[in-house]
């Protein structure tokens, strides 16, 4: 899977060099390329924004610099372009699975008051939001997309981990326990140390349903 990220702040993506995503990059399972939109500014001060037509607060990113940055990406015409926006479709596990089937994603990160609508209409295939709230930019949502989608790429995680996690079957995941067997007077549920796999699976299924009813009853609809 190849990710190209159009951003004004490529330094923010250093966290993706760590942990599971970092190892996936090292193994060549995923590729993350950061394209600094500011590099395509023709202004001597590398300015990329301007005041909005019609007035209003804030600044708007110019369409020409975004388009030039997009045009610099190899094979961009064969990629799916996603604009991270609070106006987009809400990201969920089904959408993550759908995106993981793509070979090349281009993630466009907005900032300031937004991006000129003309370039959005020109290059964007889909707008995605990670929640009903507004952030200072699209960098954090882009990282969320990269992290969540990468987990479905073959070799990044074990298939068992993916199948049993929350939302994989529209239920939240069952509680997890590890050593020590007793902690602060609380013991691990007896069934988990019984070695009886059928009973363990039944307990986990029941707990998943119970937790979903309490925490996210909307998922059961």
Topology (SSEs and partners):
Elements (H helix, E strand, L loop, with lengths): L1 E6 L11 H8 L4 E6 L12 E2 L9 E2 L1 H9 L8 E11 L2 H8 L3 E6 L7 H7 L2 E4 L9 H12 L8 H6 L17 E2 L2 E2 L9 H19 L6
Parallel strand pairs: 1-2, 1-6, 5-6, 5-7
Antiparallel strand pairs: 3-4, 8-9
Helix pairs in contact: 2-4, 3-5
Can you tell me about this structure?
This protein is of the alpha/beta class and 221 residues long. 31% of the residues lie in helices and 19% in strands. It contains seven helices and nine strands. It has a five-stranded parallel β-sheet. The protein has a two-stranded antiparallel ribbon with strand order 3-4. A hairpin with a 2-residue loop joins strand 8 and strand 9.
Any key phrases for this structure?
221 residues; alpha/beta
Short description:
With 221 residues, this protein is of the alpha/beta class. Helices cover 31% and strands 19% of the residues. Helix 2 packs parallel to helix 4 (117-123) and helix 3 (93-100) packs across helix 5 (139-150).
The overall pLDDT, averaged over residues, is: 94
Question: Which residues form runs of ≥5 with pLDDT under 50?
Answer: none
Gross morphology is elongated
Distance between the termini: 33 Å
Major sheet: 5 strands, parallel
H/E topology pattern: EHEEEHEHEHEHHEEH
**Total number of helical segments?**
7
Beta-strand portion reads 15-25%
Query: Considering DSSP H and I runs of 4 or more, what fraction of the residues is helical?
Result: 25-40%
> How many beta strands in the DSSP annotation?
9
């Amino acid at each position: 899977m190849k990710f190209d990220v159009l951003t004004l702040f490529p330094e923010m993506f250093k966290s993706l060099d760590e942990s599971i995503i970092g190892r996936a990059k090292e193994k060549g399972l995923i590729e993350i390329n950061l394209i600094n939109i500011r590099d395509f500014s023709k202004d001597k001060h590398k300015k990329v924004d301007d005041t909005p037509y019609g007035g209003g607060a804030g600044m708007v990113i110019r369409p020409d610099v975004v388009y030039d940055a997009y045009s610099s990406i190899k094979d961009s015409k064969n990629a799916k372009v996603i604009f991270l926006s609070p106006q987009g479709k809400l990201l969920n596990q089904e959408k993550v699975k759908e995106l993981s089937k793509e070979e090349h994603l281009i993630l466009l990160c907005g900032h300031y008051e937004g991006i000129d609508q003309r370039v959005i209409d020109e290059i964007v295939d889909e707008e995605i939001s990670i929640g009903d709230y507004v952030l200072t930019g699209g960098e954090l949502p882009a990282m969320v997309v990269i992290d969540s989608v990468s987990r479905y790429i073959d070799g990044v995680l074990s298939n068992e981990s993916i199948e049993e996690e929350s939302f994989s079957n529209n239920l939240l995941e069952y509680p997890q326990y590890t050593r020590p067997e007793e902690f602060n007077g609380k013991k691990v549920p007896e069934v988990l140390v019984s070695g009886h796999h059928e009973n363990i699976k039944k307990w986990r299924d029941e707990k998943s349903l119970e937790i979903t009813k309490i925490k996210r009853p909307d998922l059961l609809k």
